[in-house]
Amino acid sequence: MKHWKLRTMMALLLAAVLLVAAGCQAVGGVDLNKALQQSLRVTSGESAHTLELELTFAEDAADQMSAEEAEMLRLFSSIKLELDEVKQQANGNASMRGALALGDLEIGFRAVATDTLVMVELDGVARPLVLDLNAMLEESGELDDSTAALFDADAQAELTELTREAVYTAGDFLIGHLPNPERIAVGGVQEEIHGETLSLMKVSAELDGTEVLGWAKGYLEALLADRAGIETLLTELMALAESDAAQELLGSLGVETMLPADMDEAARAEQIAEGAEEMVSTLEMLLDELETFEADNGDSLAGWLNEQSYIAADLYIDSKLDVRKSDMELVLQPSEEALMWPLERIAVRSSAELWNVNGAVEVEALEAPADAIPLESLMWMESYDLMQEMEASSDLYRLFERLGLNRQELTLYAQYDYYPPIVTPDGVTIVPLRTVAEGLGGEVTYEAATGRYVVYDPATGTTIALAKNDDSVLVNGLARTWSYPVINLDGVLYVPARNMVEALGGTLHWVNDEELELRYLEIERVL
User: Fold this and answer.
1) 10 Å Cβ neighbour count for 427?
2) Could you report the per-residue pLDDT of 163-178, keeping only the tens digit for each?
């Protein structure tokens, strides 16, 4: 199931381009409906893809921003994902190599996936990231007979086939009613795909911004006008759900069917009629909401969906009706009145080439090393923990730096924190030891043998050993004298703030917010 989605993702993207380009109606002798269905039937092949986002900002935008904001502007003004080598194997295994470019940074990667294992290698990271579905289920105690059955090869194949049939059935109806845009052309061309020159049919189409809403409403109206088609669709989907293959698969997975047993024709017809009524109601609601949205936001929509905004697509289709190449461009060019400073223009471009379609494809073997980083651990891993896995000279490390992910901030409120920062009569600020240590990602332990509390900070590798009522401490084994002894206040250890924070490589300062009537201590450090 997982890899049916993976295998069809690129095909569905191409299908989306085709929908915009031409609906399913035959143009110039090319049956676009069959071409779309054919793209969904691809089970193996090789390809290359590019997706690019370009944001155009006002020329003086950076001059009116802080240095950090200007850096973000430069970083995200151009984002480009290039997949130079994508392979999908008929058994569901897949791999890809490529790079993500943001501004002047480029991060290469490689990914390989099987039914139960995914591994991602990133340039500049020594250890790969691995997602082991079986290991996750075993660890969580959820790997029972039903989940194990889901990963069975035969069950995967049956589920994939049933999903395909459902997609084909729904696609025939949903795609069949898509209207063609006014500007569409078809012609024969010679095009090079992966070093091979092919004779292809090129389908070119374009919608400008003023046509988009009318096209969408026309599509919904066409669906609503075909009540018989809706009932036929539901009849075919119900027959698929009632098939022996579907029932056997659900039984093997321990899933109970929602359909009544031994349903007669009258009951089946009643369910189909009720389902059709619900689908019609949903389509009517969507059409009504679209028309209301257009009426309520006409001026602002016109500012963005104008003649300068457009979506254009070129599809290159071979004699087998396989889509072999696609180019798409979406441009949003707001009018002067609709501009949202500093953004002036948005452009999205994509391209793809496909070869060895449904041919023999071999995906490289997946061998995850024992010391790989579990992908699920990123959910609770601090950014600086991940940065420790990176080469400091890599573009990925530089990206984390520019995003401020190597920066830590900790705020302690004098009025509201349960254990607040305190200024002593001598003018020394003291802070709760555990709050600061753990707030910066460290840990505090107690050594009974020495009577010392030990702070370990993994981000910097710093160790601090200290004892109650003593101003002598050991920082990485070296003796230091702090400005104030470690004291116990109501069971909480307090230490001199500046000594503690500077030992961990940070800085601190008091902030007096007169507007909010707040006084707080800000602790910062850059790793």
Assistant:
1) 7
2) 778 877 887 788 778 7
